[in-house]
Each structure stands twice: as structure tokens, then as C-alpha cells.
Amino acid sequence: MSAHLGTAERPLRVAIVGAGPAGFYAAEALLKQKDLVCRIDFFNRLPTPYGLVREGVAPDHQSIKAVTRVYDKLAAGTNVRYFGNVTFGRDLHHADLKARYDQIVYAVGAQSDRQMGIAGEDLAGSMPATVFVGWYNGHPDYCDLAFPLDCERVIVVGNGNVAMDVTRILVCDPAELAKSDIADHALAALRGSKVREVVMLGRRGPVQAAFTNPELKEFGELAGVDVLVDPADLDLDAQSEASLAEDKTAQKNVALLRTYAARGETGAPRRIVMRFLASPVEVLGAEGKMTAVKVERNQLVAAADGTMRPKGTGVYDTIEAGMILRSVGYKGVPIPDVPYDSAKGTIPNVAGRVTSPESNAVVAGEYVVGWAKRGPSGVIGTNKPDAAATVAMMLADLPHLPAASNAEDVATLLAERGADAVSYADWKILDAHEAALGAAQGRPRVKVTRVDEMMAIIRQGR
To answer: So where does FAD get bound (predicted)?
Structure first.
């Protein structure tokens, strides 16, 4: 370790861009180092911290959100500062951080979605699941959107946990959602929803599905909802049977699916139809609005790497629907002056060290964690070992890093540029406001969904 960097005489200065789980776990790993003295500054575009824990986790999954207690303790530490309401590339630039910090960590997630690449995908009523998630979670970017909930059937493409979440929210009893921190505008819209059926399309078979056992089990516990599975979809090919024997998660999934298939219809007012080996090939519509989806039946074939891949059979059917939500993968977006791999949608890196896409050379002092590092995979907890691995690289690099030359406090720079940065104490003002509104309604919180309203509450409480 450097004779000067990371000591009481010259603490290591680290900037973390993004304040979601990956960023907090990186800070935690740094602060746990007994022989390291460091100062960590978080920078976040929204006034509110926690990233996908606030803006991505489904409102009926409150237990998952309890992880913010760990982040709260970290942010309250004397060696950590939070700068919310600061946009990288506008209020603060790459060169500003490079001059003031010895190491920079990008924890910016995967903010965009992948498209299906089929005809009609741009028709009204066809949109990403991520946008729907942001809308019902009160993300300021999506709070003014409207969704065609006046239809009886919605199609969800994909069978990962995000697809499971949006499907569940669409058929969940609004009275149950009213006990959560779902955004008020979304709750009002869902109270008036006419959606009675959600069809989930998975292009591969049930053994290859990406959802987890708890998510699938939840479907069967929804009041007033039938879960329908065609028994023919559960007739497994030999290779799927073989892989099932080695995968306990898939075994439990298939067992649950067989339970649903055997149960069939009970006459519940709402239903989830889970289809496998089915790919949308065209979104059909009239007058610019989607009306149906053309679906092709697939079969599984073994790829060169031994995995089972879907292949179209040329057998089609059409499903009428008023909305289609795609959940077929996510990708990061480029941020100013930071390397970007457009093919993978990530920041190029080797073991968390940022690299130049042109030369593949390591960019000294710059690192990446989370989905921006590895792509959109895993759950919130997956980010903890991922961040620790990147921090190990940061520590290994310390002896070779020059100290940042500019000792000016970034807070001074932000003030000079007119940025009204939100401190962690400021966030706690907003947090207390939301919690008080929630307590009055028997809810965890009532979210403020507009940045100008957030800032007005914070300024009044300062």
C-alpha cells in the first residue's frame, strides 16, 4: 500500500458515481479495511439514494427494502458524504473528479432496456417493463406516463423476476397494494384497471426460465388469481430432463408449474397465463396502436456450447391484447467521458478495472461495480461480493497510483456552479416527510415523485 495514500496524513479520496446497492457495497468494503483511511463521496442524479431498492424493487416486497438500513449506517459515517441532485456530465464532469479523487467508482447500473427487434414494436401500447416499474415505484422520470389499463389482456415478454413483478402488480388486488409504498398515481390507475389476464411469454422451456422459486410461488398465493399452465409445456425433452436433475431451483420451479397445471381454472376473476417455448414475432395494430401479438411456437435445440436454445417451428398463433411489456434484458447507457461497450451495454473492464475500448489498456484509478460492470444479472445481494472484488483491485492498485492534485472540496465547486446538492441529512428530511405521510395511511411511506417537490420539502426543512 502507498506510503501516503490511505493514511491519516493523506486519506484516500474516493468518488462513487451512483448511490444504489453496488455503490454502497463498494463503500462498505472500503470502510471495512482496518489499515485504510479513506473519504468517500457519493454522487447521484436524483435527490433520493438507494437506486433500484427504491425505484426497482416491487412495492409489495417491503422486506427486501430493509437492506437500506445497512446503507443508512454507512452514509451516516463521518467519512462518507452524499451529494444528491447532482447530474454527472452537467453539474460535475469527469475531469472534475479526476483532479480531486484518487479513485473513481462507477455504480451507474443498467438504466435502459433491450428491444425485441420485431415489427410493430414501436406501436402505442408496446413499451419496456422497466418504464412500467419506474412508473409504479414513483421514479420522477416516469411519474407522468399513462398506460392503457383499459384493456382486458396484457402480454409480458420474458420470465425473469422483473417480468414476474410487473405481471403480479397488474393482477394484484389494489387493496393489497394500498398497504405498500406504491406511487399514489399508480395506485389510482390500478384501482380503475380493466386488466383481467396477463399472458407471460417465455421463449425457452420451464427448465430454462430465469425466475426464482419465491417469485413463482407468490403467483399461486395471489387472492382472486388463477395461474394457468399448459401441461404440454411441461413435457420436457431429454436434455432438459437431464439438466433438471442438476438444478434444484429448476426442479422446484417445474414442480410448482405442474401444481398450477393440475389446478387449472377455479373461476377466479383474474388470471396469469404462463406460456413457454413461445416468441413474439410481430406486434399487430391499427391506427398506430397495438391490438394483438403474433407468436411463434419454439422448440429447443442444443447449441455448440451445450446450452438449449429456442428455434422457431413455423407454427403461429395470435393473441389479442391492449398492451405488451417487454422484459428481455437491460443495458447501461454511456456517460460523458467514460468508456462504454455498446455491444454489451457495460463499462468495459477487467475484474472491475475500467479499460479503454480502443486499446484495452486499464484506465488508472477508475473502477466499476454492479450491472455497469457485469451486465444485468443477479439480485441485490449479488452486488456485495461483486463490489468486494472490485475493491480488492482498488487496494492492489494503491501503491502505483499518484495522489489527486486538486485539494479543493467538490462542495465548493458545486456551489459555484449553482447546483443545489442534497446532503444525506437533507435526504433524511424528505425521508421523514414520506414516512409521516405513510404512517397516517398505515403504509411504509408515501413517495414524493417529483424532484421540484422533493427539493421544496428539503429546503423548507433545512
So the answer is: 22, 52, 371, 378-380
329 is in an annotated binding site: no
d(CA 159, CA 157): 7
Task: Check the annotation: does 298 bind a ligand.
Answer: no
pLDDT in tens, 157-208: 999 989 999 999 999 999 999 999 999 999 999 999 999 999 999 999 999 9
Q: In what order do the strands lie in the sheet with 197-201?
A: 126-128, 323-326, 153-157, 197-201, 270-275, 225-229
Please tell me whether residues 373 and 227 are part of one structural domain: no
CATH number at residue 156: 3.50.50.60
- Neighbour tally for 460: CB within 10 Å: 9
Domain extent for 153: 115-328
Tell whether residue 135 is among the known ligand binding residues: no
Ligand-binding annotation for 215, yes or no, is: yes
Ligand-binding annotation for 378, yes or no, is: yes
Q: Are 242 and 377 contained in the same domain?
A: no
Q: Are residues 129 and 103 in the same domain?
A: no
Confirm or deny that 84 is annotated as ligand binding: no
Kindly report the CATH number assigned to the domain that includes residue 18: 3.40.50.720
Instruction: State pLDDT tens for residues 404-448.
Output: 989 899 999 999 999 999 999 999 999 999 999 999 999 999 999
DSSP-assigned letters across all residues of 120-179: TTTSBTEEEHHHHHHHHTT-TTTTT----TTSSEEEEE--SHHHHHHHHHHHS-HHHHTT
Contact between residue 62 and residue 180 where contact means Cβ atoms under 8 Å apart: yes
Confirm whether 429 is domain-assigned.
no
